[in-house]
Design brief:
Blueprint (H helix, E strand, L loop, with lengths): L7 E5 L5 E5 L7 E3 L6 H11 L13 H9 L2 H4 L3 H15 L21 H9 L5 H20 L26 H10 L3 H13 L3 H4 L7 E2 L2 E5 L6 E5 L2 H6 L19 H14 L7 H14 L4 H8 L4 H23 L4
Antiparallel strand pairs: 1-2, 2-3, 4-5, 5-6
Helix pairs in contact: 2-4, 2-6, 5-6, 8-12, 12-14, 13-14
Length: about 350
């Protein structure tokens, strides 16, 4: 039993007792001493939970140094806090990776101007099993080296020309009516049911699902600025959803520990787990978002109506749903007009 604490893992001792560790990607594995839930234990746990990558003693011109300059730049600081936090974690991981697994030298200590496209491909390909993560590395590295080139810290932006990893077409699988039905057949109460109801009715992003609460209800609408894009959404709350929203907590969605989820990733993983428990595999919260966008497009919603609902800034994000719905309608119209053979 891990006491419902995020990022906690245990290992067995030879005498049958356990030792506990805090384990989070991009952060050193840390032993937690003391009895679980004791004052000593929880102080150590809280320290790990609030850990941030320390500023390295970086020599000017090293890869770690140009990463620090990027994270101190207006380009980086203009991004949403959630985006900044996620990028810091990715950067910390790359800086601390070894150039060669069998050698102690790390990427962070290398002179930035001595790095080549081969080094970039190494960082990319270490995420080959998760191409989206590999491509996210390239995206961040592109901005780091763009800044470094503009400041003449490096002779060229070595990211230019580096190919992205291939990603299965379509990204997240779109949920089906059957997936949604399985979910609600399995989850009839509790956080899983509440999350499912909000996703089914509103199709919000996980970053918004995590923080939505009673404070966002204004004149019968859920009114909030999206975490990712800063777009104001004012979504009507139909009677079924209104009856499902908790009235006792300020934040609608709470973990099993009775607290708001601490990160978007933790909530995203939990939603995926709830779908797996229902027998719907490879379905995520984003899968439900795509399902709802598809439904609304099929019902005649325009690109700009979808943008307003889903908090998109660019029509190209809504266009695939509208185009797919139009193709379906035109195919049906062509079928209806055809001359029987």
């Amino acid at each position: 039993m891990l006491f419902n604490l995020e990022h906690l893992t245990d290992r067995d001792n030879s005498d049958g007792t356990k030792r506990y560790y805090f384990r989070r990607r991009g952060q050193p594995l840390t032993r937690l001493h003391g009895e679980p839930l004791s004052l000593e234990f929880m102080r150590a746990y809280d320290a790990c939970l609030n850990w941030s990558a320390p500023a390295a003693e970086n020599t000017q011109g090293t890869f770690a140094w140009i990463c620090d300059q990027y994270m101190d730049s207006p380009v980086f600081k203009s991004k949403a806090k959630a985006t900044q936090d996620a990028r810091r974690r990715v950067i910390a991981t790359m800086v601390n990776e070894r150039l060669d697994p069998d050698q102690p030298e790390k990427f962070g200590s290398e002179k930035a101007k001595s790095l080549t496209s081969d080094h970039i491909e190494i960082l990319r390909d270490r995420k080959a099993d998760n191409p989206n993560a590999g491509n996210e590395r390239l995206k961040i590295l592109g901005q780091i080296f763009k800044l470094a080139k503009s400041k003449k810290w490096v002779p060229a932006n070595i990211i230019i020309g580096t190919e992205r990893l291939g990603v299965p077409k379509g990204g997240h699988r779109t949920a089906t009516d059957e997936d949604i039905a399985k979910y609600f057949a399995k989850h009839t109460s509790g956080p899983a049911w509440v999350a499912g109801m909000i996703l089914r009715h509103l199709g919000v992003r996980v970053s918004d699902l995590r923080i939505l609460g009673r404070q966002h209800v204004k004149k019968g609408r859920l009114t909030f600025e999206t975490v990712k894009t800063g777009v104001l959404c004012e979504l009507p709350i139909d009677p079924e959803l209104a009856a499902a929203l908790p009235r006792d907590n300020m934040t609608y969605l709470l973990s099993d520990a009775g607290k708001p989820f601490e990160s978007d990733k933790a909530l995203s993983q939990r939603v995926s787990k709830w779908f797996r428990q229902a027998g719907a595999t490879k379905i995520t919260a984003h899968s439900v978002r795509k399902w709802l966008a598809t439904k609304m497009a099929e019902d005649g919603s325009t690109e700009y109506q979808l943008m307003s609902w889903f908090g998109w800034k660019d029509p190209k994000e809504a266009r695939p749903y509208v185009q797919a719905a139009n193709r379906q309608k035109m195919a049906q119209q062509a079928y209806d007009k055809r001359t029987p053979v």
